[in-house]
Amino acid sequence: MERTFVMIKPDGVQRGLVGEVIRRFEAKGFTLTGLKLMSVSQELAEQHYDVHKEKPFFKGLVDFITSSPVVAMVWEGDGVVAGARKVIGATNPLTAEPGTIRGDFGLNIGRNLIHGSDAVETASREISLWFSEKELVTWKPTMMPWLHE
Ligand code: DAT
Ligand code: MG
């Protein structure tokens, strides 16, 4: 089953949107497989955003993500990598569609509330960066037959 890494960034946690974000993924039908509130070290932040290390916004991004706790999650389901990105919305909250998390709650690209892996390979890299194997729980919700034909 496909898995993706989702992180509620410091702005989402500080603004009290943890429950709202989790609610949206649950309501969609994805399965929560890992969950933790944590402070992010400089090293983890730099590794996570390694692809952006040459970008002008890299330092600001790392400073932001290490400034206050985040909620790290793994979600599972058919097509969850692309599906979670749809639920999250476009990178810039100003152009993100209403009905998406960023479109409904954000204003600024540097405060876009949430991260989601952008591809299946990225997801697997990010999941192993943020979670140990024993922190992930494999389970099947009993409502599965009501979500899948
Ligand atoms: P996404 O988070 O939608 O995958 P990304 O991987 O291109 O977007 O960039 C990672 C984060 O970096 C993004 O969530 C917010 C920040 N960011 C991206 N482009 C930016 C820009 N032009 N100015 C400031 N921050 C930016
Ligand atoms: Mg990205």
Structure description:
The protein is an alpha+beta fold. The protein contains 8 helices and 4 strands; from the N terminus they run βααβααβααβαα. The protein has helices at residues 10-14, 18-28, 42-48, 58-65, 80-88, 101-105, 120-130, 144-147; strands at residues 3-8, 31-38, 70-76, 114-116. 34% of the residues are buried. The mean pLDDT is 98. The structure holds 2'-deoxyadenosine-5'-diphosphate and magnesium ion. 2'-deoxyadenosine-5'-diphosphate (DAT) binds at residues 52, 57, 61, 91, 109-110, 112, 115, 118.
Summarize the structure.
With 149 residues, this protein is α+β, with helices and mostly antiparallel strands. Helices cover 40% and strands 16% of the residues. It starts with a strand and ends with a helix.
Rg estimate, integer Å: 15 Å
Beta-strand content: 15-25%
- Number of continuous helical runs: 8
Distance between the termini: 16 Å
Average pLDDT confidence is 98
Sequence of secondary-structure elements = EHHEHHEHHEHH
Q: What class do helices, strands and sheet pairing give?
A: alpha+beta
Largest sheet: 4 strands, antiparallel
Bound molecules: 2'-deoxyadenosine-5'-diphosphate, magnesium ion
Estimate the helix proportion, in percent. Answer: 40-55%
Strand order of the largest sheet: 2-3-1-4
Considering the chains and any ligands shown, give keywords for the structure.
single chain, alpha+beta, 40% helix, globular, binds 2'-deoxyadenosine-5'-diphosphate
Could you outline the blueprint of secondary structure elements for this entry?
Blueprint: E1 3-8, H1 10-14, H2 18-28, E2 31-38, H3 42-48, H4 58-65, E3 70-76, H5 80-88, H6 101-105, E4 114-116, H7 120-130, H8 144-147
Antiparallel strand pairs: 1-3, 1-4, 2-3
The structure holds 2'-deoxyadenosine-5'-diphosphate and magnesium ion.
